[in-house]
């Protein structure tokens, strides 16, 4: 049985401050997510909504992803194979929003996803709710207070150079390992101003968003663990390359 998911995003104006919203109609109850970016585009927010939705699921999960963006649906179901064969290029140049496309492709490849286009603003309850959550995410990106009539129960923080990074849930412990309490979705780590600016510059150099870059740094730090990070610090202090 597939879990029905609605994902939507947009900006006002475009480009400009944007938001994304996700409605996951899980068997145990509905899960709602939203977030935003103070400077984005409609297409980037639509892609981000789909990415955040898929990140919520473990590998192998069966999902029906319903989007009102033909750009997202056709990218994944029709265009992406050709782009990959051409080195992520189109007939006119590099694929736009390539880092988001690559992340979406990576997530979708590890899950059983059926992509469905739905007409926007046509009265489909899940799509209408995702649209309202995207509007809430945009308000969050602008630093405006949430509207209580449309706010989800828990809203993941918006990633900006001076705000916070969201930590994804920890992977389930194996049966042979000690039980560990997973980090809840939306746990926030404060990023002070100077560090936030460094994060923004590094993300720009890497050709990605601050949130995507922060996520990758967090994954690397968790993979290395305390001992690995200590070795890296020692190597840096000695101005020697890490082994």
From TrEMBL:
Region ranges (Disordered): 139-189
Source organism of the structure: Methylobacterium frigidaeris
Source superkingdom: Bacteria
Molecular-function annotations in GO: magnesium ion binding; nucleic acid binding; RNA-DNA hybrid ribonuclease activity
Classification via HAMAP family: RNase_H
Cofactor descriptive note: Binds 1 Mg(2+) ion per subunit. May bind a second metal ion at a regulatory site, or after substrate binding.
Cofactors required: Mg(2+)
Biological processes, Gene Ontology terms: DNA replication, removal of RNA primer
Stated family: Belongs to the RNase H family.
InterPro entries according to UniProt: RNase_H, RNaseH-like_sf, RNaseH_domain, RNaseH_sf, RNaseHI
Compositionally biased intervals (Low complexity): 160-184
Family annotation (SUPFAM superfamilies): Ribonuclease H-like
Location, primary (coarse class): cytoplasm
Bias (Pro residues): 145-159
The organism's taxonomic lineage, starting at the top: Bacteria, Pseudomonadati, Pseudomonadota, Alphaproteobacteria, Hyphomicrobiales
Protein keywords: Cytoplasm, Endonuclease, Hydrolase, Magnesium, Metal-binding, Nuclease
Cellular compartment(s): Cytoplasm
NCBIfam families xrefs: PRK00203.1
Function: Endonuclease that specifically degrades the RNA of RNA-DNA hybrids.
Keyword presence, S-adenosyl-L-methionine: no
GO cellular component, one term: cytoplasm
Reaction(s) catalysed (UniProt annotation): Endonucleolytic cleavage to 5'-phosphomonoester
Chain positions recorded as Mg(2+) 1 binding sites: 8, 46, 68
Domain RNase H type-1: 1-139
Official protein name in the record: Ribonuclease H
Binding annotation for Mg(2+) 2: 8, 131
Subunit structure: Monomer.
